[in-house]
Amino acid sequence: EPKSSAQLMEEWGLDDVDYAFSEEDYHMLTNYKAFSQFLRPLVAKQNPKIPMSKMMTVLGAKWREFSANNPFKGSSAAAAAAAIAAAVETVAVAAAAPLSTSAAQPLMPQPVIRKAKTKEGKGPGVRKKMKTPKDSKKKGKGKKVASLKFRFGGLASKRKKGSSSEEEEREESDLDSASIHSSSLPSKSSAGLGKKGKRRKKKKRLEDGDGYETDHQDYCEVCQQGGEIILCDTCPRAYHLVCLDPELEKAPEGKWSCPHCEKEGIQWEPKDEEEEEEESGEEEDDHMEFCRVCKDGGELLCCDTCPSSYHLHCLNPPLPEIPNGEWLCPRCTCPPLKGKVQRILHWVWTEPPAPLASALPSADSEFAIPPPMPLEGIPEREFFVKWAGLSYWHCCWVKELQLELYHTVMFRNFQRKNDMDEPPAFDYGSGDEDGKSEKRKNKDPLYAQMEEKFYRYGIKPEWMMIHRVLNHSFDKKGDVHYLVKWKDLSYDQCTWESGDMDIPDYEHFEQQYWNHREMMLGEDTSCLLKRLNKKEKNLNNDKLERPPKTPVVDPTVKFDKQPWYIDTTGGTLHPYQLEGLNWLRFSWAQGMDTILADEMGLGKTVQTIVFLYSLYKEGHSKGPYLVSAPLSTIINWEREFEMWAPDFYVVTYTGDKESRSVIRENEFSFEDNAIRTGKKVFRMKKEAQIVKSSTSCSHLL
């Protein structure tokens, strides 16, 4: 519970204000501002040296007590009566009309509406005023250290005209070496002779020094001579170190008062640099001297949070008049992007924004002027972008200003390489932009929606189709996310997708992933799928059954017809292919290496795949199998494995460093630490089990 005002006063050693609030006070002091203006002078009178922070805390506590003790709190009738009485006494109206309680409000002065800041720009060719050392000294005021209180005052006699420049330079160098914080140099007009009883207020600026200004006299108060003098911090007097009583060997650090101030008291305070600037009426303005849009000068509207300036008519939509209060420019109000942009796919012109209407004049005004026609805005560009780390399903439109602010280099490069006056033509990634596409759109409404939203901007349909689910993880909320490999895209384009993404066949591939884990690791994933809000009827829809146990067939036995597991694929081997399969099986059983040297086009790939598939289906070898093939035939090998060995989990180990790193970390094993992560290749741990590849074929190039 907050402390009361009496407790705060007693804790801080302050004198409390003993004032009894009357009924009229409760009616008049209706807000904190009026209460503070009334009570602050009373508190300050009792406690002249109270800090501002403690003053505000005490006023807040007293306002809480005042509001809690208000007997008229919540009584609208009493407040209305008090307001009517105050209005009658002020205006001195004889006749009073009955007023409703809801319409009576205390008469408060209208606040002054401040317009937004404006300036007269001079154009882009005008150089901004260079900051003087005084400005830099002002900015570093918070880190100011105590400087030596030396000053070089006027000399006792005027310098002769015949003195050589060498003597002057030598004398100035000697004086400069005396102190690194000198305040002025010897000048001919600063002797100060013959004016003992008269104080002169001077300001001297070094033309080639540090720009230090002072109100102090430039001669010693005791001997009336110039030279190396020390300045008093509480009066304009100055002294030699040897003229003080007692003498000082070096200038004191920190604030120092002269003997006169210590004896008579402080009667003078030096003006601060900020106070002098306020008195002179000069205000530093860092805003641009030209419009950010058209690069021209004139009357500019200045942003309150950045140096940008704009013409009213250069904004989009244009402003009819100077707005009230603080105004933020479009750059400061631009929303940030949701991620890093990887690629700009397309851009279009958008409709101009709706114009802003000016403030309408009052209807009862006798000389009401009709408002001017609102200025119309101009069309803006919007860009269709692909986000880094996200799939093509997350592509969306962003504004031109967002790209200019958050991806300046990418936006400038895109401007240089493309025509920014006419949007580019639609780029159908599938290359199917003839009559076939029209027929498919008429038959498939979903394809028509996808083409309008994605395909016509250069995105291939295969890039949005799932190839397989590689891994899974849970976030802090317990929601599952899957690492998805997309068709026709390399492994470095794999993305993490949430479990509730609306993607065609997403649940089918998700179920295949969990079934594969259950088959390889022996995990029971049914409870996990139930926890992930999967319906019971969908748990076994795509359940992968374990292959039936077949009796071990002697590999030396010759097949007269193709085996049953080849019949389930729907393919038929030629007689010479079946003979090649028997020869490969017999050679493997005898431990002989073989070379299948048929002519091109006779199906050597099919014979090899069926041979490996027979070893797995008959229980002779669980794998994994390693196939090394040329890059030009990799796609054909993948297609034939999918056709003739549907139970194989095929991994194509190819691509750049990032792609191969993703394969090693997510495809070789379900164990998290089976292989050390990173782009550098490491051996798999000996105790790690290659569970993902127990029924797989890996292509190593």
TrEMBL record:
Domain of life per record: Eukaryota
Name recorded for this polypeptide: Choline dehydrogenase 5
Species this protein is from: Sphaerodactylus townsendi
